[in-house]
Predict the 3D structure of the following.
Amino acid sequence: MPVLNEPVPSNRWRVLIEENLGTGENKRWMVGRVETAPDREAARELARQLVLSHVPQHPFNQKERSVYAAAGDVWVVTIPGSMDTFHFRVSIVEWLGDWGKKRD
């Protein structure tokens, strides 16, 4: 089993945005954006900003959004488009290190 490289930096808090990226048959659900925060409270503030301001790739024309708080530090945002409703997820996570990364 791989061992985490040490030490874990103090700015280990991240805000991840997962969304559908690409078009047509190449559309995939994936992590589209990762932002670093100095601490958990700063990550929460950044996440709150992103649920309201992040412009996802889909839908093309956005008029409104609904924001849902899920378990813990996770938010789901739905945005109706002209033909379908799309969503993205904003999560606060703690980065634990890189697996298998070679040390210098």
Summary: The chain has a mean pLDDT of 87. The radius of gyration is 16 Å. The beta strands are 13-21, 28-37, 66-69, 74-80, 85-94. Residues 76 and 101 are 32 Å apart (CA to CA).
